[in-house]
Amino acid sequence: MRLTSKGRYGVSAMVDINNNGKEGKPVTLAAISERQFISLSYLEQLFRSLRAGGLVRSIRGPGGGYLLAHPASEITIANVIQAVNEPIRTTLCENAVRGCHRGRRCDTHQLWDAMGKHIYRFLDAVTIEMVCQKEVDLNNLELKPVEDIVTEVRMEQKIAKVS
Amino acid sequence: MRLTSKGRYGVSAMVDINNNGKEGKPVTLAAISERQFISLSYLEQLFRSLRAGGLVRSIRGPGGGYLLAHPASEITIANVIQAVNEPIRTTLCENAVRGCHRGRRCDTHQLWDAMGKHIYRFLDAVTIEMVCQKEVDLNNLELKPVEDIVTEVRMEQKIAKVS
DNA sequence: AAAATACTTGACTAAAATACTCTGGTTTAT
DNA sequence: ATAAACCAGAGTATTTTAGTCAAGTATTTT
């Protein structure tokens, strides 16, 4: 999983649908484009991925648009980010089995592995619905135990920004 | 704070010094270069930042090298990553005071803010010493309460990779 | 004093990734 | 039929990153 502004846009779009597509009315990409300041072409690209990931379904023709494929309470931020990003290519660090450099597991492997799990646990605990409900305190969530996290982590380039 | 492979290299180098510079002996960049597979030139660039950040001190001349400026138990991963990365330029999201787009705080602002804090709390809880002590379980750390976190968060491009 | 070792600094560059845009479709409701 | 709306792939400009190069300066050992 990569966290990029593509993922950010994906989440914004999903939240927009949940906020504006009440009563089963589909939301058009043109409407999302205006509200979220995302170009239509780029949205089309994003929704291609979201649709392939089973997160939205579309209704074609005039009056059509997009709907969430599941209740907002069942779609996590991790789901969205995973959907819009391509599968990963290994770059710096080989996978956990092979070790990091030339068969030797690097001294910091555990650290980056733990960090990735830590991030994932957060993103997996937050749903689209929670983002829409402003009163939810995202700073004190109940996270799933680490044992339930099945991901394997790699650190690549940019990761986050905390000034 | 950005998490990049530059930060990764920085942490590797700091861990290397702690592991190999016992008894107050300085560690040369050439030695780190060999052990960690980082080019000497690039290490020089990294250590310029680490030194400016007060994390290492140098001893010049033959027999010289670098020492940790503080005990490994007092240097956090957040410290290292902060030191090697340039100050941040705002791109997508304005700061917390100004709002996100044209004065309007975006619907997902809280989410990315909370995510940044979540990541920071982890990196601030892990010290160089902990990374060196393989028996520490980084997956179940005691984190500082959110109230004590003074950072402000922005999401930019790539953020993390969790396959 | 000379020489070797090692740190210091700034500028520069190549490669990769990202964030889009563009063009041309196809489907479906009215 | 027509228009709204989705679908798809290729392509491109920008940004960022990772890393190099060249030319120093400081310190210790011999």
Model description:
2 copies of one chain form a homodimer. The first copy, chain A, is mainly alpha-helical and 163 residues long. Chain A has one domain: Orthogonal Bundle (Arc Repressor Mutant, subunit A), CATH 1.10.10. Helix content of chain A is 41%, strand content 7%. The first copy, chain A, contains 6 helices and 4 strands, in the order H-H-H-E-E-H-H-H-E-E. Chain A has helices at 5-20, 29-36, 40-52, 77-84, 109-125, 128-132; strands at residues 56-59, 65-68, 153-154, 161-162. In chain A, strands 1-2 form a two-stranded antiparallel sheet. In chain A, helix 1 crosses helix 3 (40-52). The longest helix of chain A is centred in the C-terminal third of the chain and has 17 residues, at 109-125. Chain A starts with a helix and ends with a strand. Residues 89-99 and 152-163 of chain A have low confidence and may be disordered. Chains A and B meet through helix 1, helix 5, strand 3 and strand 4 of A and helix 1, helix 5, strand 3 and strand 4 of B. Strand 3 of chain A pairs antiparallel with strand 4 (161-162) of chain B. Chain B binds a DNA duplex (30 and 30 nucleotides) through helix 1 and helix 3.
